[in-house]
Design brief:
253 residues, alpha+beta, six-stranded mixed β-sheet, two-stranded antiparallel sheet, 6 helices, 10 strands, 19% helix, globular
Length: 253
């Protein structure tokens, strides 16, 4: 297993992994995994339904020479159910139609495989993801498989309702234990109480001061704009290919 070639994968005693889905646009009509996929980040001059592959991936986050690197550990091709039911050529491998899996099921499968791998089998795993994956659909199957070693760090959806911990059971109390405590409110309502605590932050990579984070409830897509000082020019982020990332870790081919 190539995972075993990664020296010191832990960061502060934990395995940090990033989970997200992405699309890769293609031109050929018979390329496996391709479908007209909705692109929520498409610009005004781009198609909102490009012909592309939709990939769900799990990547190791690790600092290399003072900068964060992202090393692909595993990925899955996601195909809509309608594409598989239609038995399209783009959903077949050597004539066999691939079975359908939701993105949640694919993500859970990969995380469980990483957690039980010998190279990662003892360290806690912190999964950094967006609000789409940060819910019980991912938490429940992975936590059931690996227990308290699994944790998720994600942005709450604005309509998520938060509750306090339930009170301790009183002696001779009738009925079952309470599942929830006092209702604290939706994420949007609670964010308003800490909005005044928004402050400047400093980029760990360049040291350039970033703009004030005005609202903890802003959309994921707005975050880069909020963190970008208007007077500062930015270069496009580099793409880290798995081979290059392995070389940075000192692995020779």
């Amino acid at each position: 297993m190539i995972w075993e070639l990664i020296p010191s994968p832990e960061t502060d005693g934990r395995i940090l992994v990033a989970l997200d889905d992405s699309i890769i646009t293609k031109v050929g009509k018979n390329i496996f995994g391709c479908e007209a996929i909705f692109d929520h980040a498409a610009k005004s001059n781009q198609s909102k339904y490009p012909w592309a592959q939709n990939i769900v991936s799990v990547r190791l986050l690790k600092q290399v020479k003072g900068r964060w690197a992202c090393l692909f550990l595993d990925f899955r091709f996601y195909l809509p159910l309608k594409t598989i039911q239609a038995k399209k050529e783009t959903a077949t491998i050597i004539g066999d139609v691939v079975p359908f899996q939701t993105k949640m099921a694919q993500a859970a499968q990969m995380l469980i495989a990483i957690a039980i791998a010998e190279h990662f089998s003892t360290a806690p795993i912190l999964t950094v993801t967006d609000s789409w994956f940060g819910n019980n659909g991912l938490w429940k199957p992975v936590y059931k498989a690996i227990g308290s070693r699994f944790n998720i760090l994600s942005r709450l959806r604005c309509n998520n309702v938060l509750y306090d911990r339930p009170e301790k059971r009183k002696p001779k109390q009738r009925g079952r234990n309470k599942k929830y405590g006092q209702r604290l409110g939706a994420a949007t309502d609670m964010a308003k109480t800490v909005q005044q605590q928004a402050r400047h932050a400093t980029s760990r990579n360049s040291g350039t001061p970033v703009a004030v984070i005005r609202s903890p409830t802003q959309r994921i897509g707005d975050a880069p704009a909020a963190l970008r000082p208007p007077q500062t020019e930015h270069k496009a982020a580099q793409s880290w290919l798995p081979q290059m990332a392995l070389r940075l870790f000192g692995i020779k081919f």
